[in-house]
Design brief:
- β4 and β5 form a beta hairpin.
- The radius of gyration is 30 Å and the shape is flat.
- α7 (191-220) packs antiparallel against α14.
- The protein has 16 helices and 13 strands.
- The longest helix has 30 residues, at 191-220.
- Helix content is 48%, strand content 18%.
- The strands form 2 sheets. A 7-stranded mixed sheet has the order 3-4-5-6-2-1-7.
- By secondary structure, it is α/β, with parallel strands linked by helices.
């Protein structure tokens, strides 16, 4: 699987900047660097210590390409476990390409996406879950997703799985030993201890599996649909939340005919707000398509903000009609947190405000209601706090392991299924040889997570999603 060629790639973002970093890794990295680098103090690169930085020039046949800093990382004490050279040059795209082309002429090969991290995995510098966390760390765009990726990259998840796997492996060895003495009918594995271990493993697996619900939305952003009738202020609310004029606002009902999405980070948690077309009966074909998309977005959302124009609730009949609409939405989507937002509270008379609040409370004690003025940005902070209250960040605050990777989630589910089979066999006096089969399968799925069990197709799929240079 691992290539013996020396690879090169731009490790910093493409485009012009103050500096750029070009990374080389492989057995010939130092020898190739010696051919193109001239130290200002006359040092020979191959004779320098690891983890040192040297000032000099990149040259070819007397032509100077750039003045650079060259960093040396000798194997095995490098990111990839191989000899690594990093060249920090000026950030001109012309200079970057000139130096990379020079290195290719001297014997380097262009790195594939994720090839540096793949080599780190294959050389034992990272396990597979840590390697995948590298990509998550690069992609993290809020505090929560960054914290999860860092915890996983530092081995928190790997260590938890490795401990379970090691304990199960010890018992598996004793079960296998029993098979060698099957005729003598002896038990080397203490069944009471084994049962306690299986219960503990099942408990941990269920906790990790449950954490995926939190981890997945934190990693990808929590989708929140803003819904309601036309002209109640949905686009104004989106603009107020984002603090910018993101959506077109007008007095004409049905202005928003398609969904508009944007992201906002609140206290380190990413939320993806979706401004939808107003829900009403219409003969306009384009608007009808927009309304159809609204219901699709509600299906996909984790939370729903049901927006109402409070200034239109002066009559009891209007409030009753609102209650019917709210109950219909609650019944249609019973598993989704729904926040009723009464907009334009600055236009509601105090007595009418009290009547609305009383009827809403009597209708559904569990219903969350917030009064805002999206135009004046009143009540927006209260709404943000309410959104945060629906996100279970307890595990995040306690620095517990949170699963965010779908591949890990799938392997954990399969491992749990095998552990439950072993428990069933133990409780029903199943023979050791049959239990051994299920134990081996559980160990296999544990190994899939950390990379002790891999194949070329799996690795190809994982590292193809990395950026080149990492």
């Amino acid at each position: 699987m691992i290539s013996q060629e020396t690879i090169v790639a731009l490790a910093s973002p493409s485009g012009a900047g103050a500096i750029a970093v070009i990374r080389i890794s492989g057995k010939d990295a130092i020898a190739i660097a010696e051919q193109v680098f001239q130290s200002v103090s006359g040092k020979i690169i191959g004779q320098q210590k690891t983890h040192t930085i040297h000032l000099g020039h990149i040259v070819e046949d007397g032509k100077v390409y750039d003045q650079v800093l060259l960093s040396i990382f000798k194997n095995p004490n490098s990111y990839t476990g191989e000899d690594v050279i990093e060249i920090s040059c000026h950030g001109s795209t012309f200079i970057q390409q000139q130096i990379i082309q020079l290195l290719l002429r001297k014997g380097c090969k262009m790195a594939q996406p994720g090839e540096f991290t793949l080599r780190a995995f294959l050389n034992g510098k990272l396990d597979l879950s840590q390697a995948e966390a590298v990509a998550d760390l690069i992609a993290s765009d809020n505090e929560a997703s960054h914290q999860i990726a860092m915890q996983q990259m530092r081995g928190g998840f790997s260590n938890e799985i490795a401990k379970l796997r090691e304990e199960l492996l010890n018992f598996a060895s004793l079960i296998e030993l029993e098979l060698d003495f099957a005729e003598e009918d002896v038990e080397f594995a203490d069944r009471t201890q084994f049962k306690a271990l299986l219960n503990r493993i099942e408990f941990v697996l269920k906790r990790l599996i449950d954490s995926f619900a939190v981890g997945n939305v934190i990693k990808n952003g929590i989708p929140v649909a803003i819904v309601g009738e036309p002209n109640v202020g949905k686009s104004t609310l989106l603009n107020a939340l984002l603090n910018e004029e993101r959506a077109i606002v007008s007095d004409i009902a049905g202005t928003t005919r398609d969904t508009i999405e944007d992201e906002l980070v609140i206290n380190g948690i990413g939320f993806r707000f979706i401004d939808t077309a107003g829900i009403r009966d219409t003969k306009d074909v384009v608007e009808s398509i927009g309304i159809k998309k609204t219901f699709e977005k509600i299906e996909q959302a984790q939370m729903v903000l049901y927006l109402v124009d409070g200034s239109q609730l002066s009559a009891i009949s209007k409030i009753e009609a609102l209650l019917v609409a709210i109950n219909k939405t609650v019944n249609q989507f019973p598993a989704k947190p729904i926040i009723t937002i009464i907009n334009k509270k600055d236009l509601i008379a105090p007595d009418n405000l009290s009547e609305i609040n009383t009827r809403l409370t009597n209708n559904n004690q569990q219903l969350t209601t917030i009064y805002i003025s999206a135009k004046n940005k009143e009540g927006i902070d209260e709404l943000k706090n309410q959104l945060l209250s629906f996100v279970n960040t307890g595990a995040l605050r306690n620095n517990e392991t949170i699963v965010t990777n779908t591949r890990h989630y799938d392997s954990l589910l399969k491992a749990l299924e095998e552990i439950q089979k072993v428990t069933f066999g133990l409780n029903n006096g199943l023979s050791s040889d049959l239990m051994a089969i299920d134990i081996k399968q559980a160990l296999y799925y544990f190994g899939e997570i950390t990379g002790e069990v891999t194949n070329d197709e799996l690795l190809g799929n994982i590292f193809a999603n990395f950026c080149i240079g990492k």
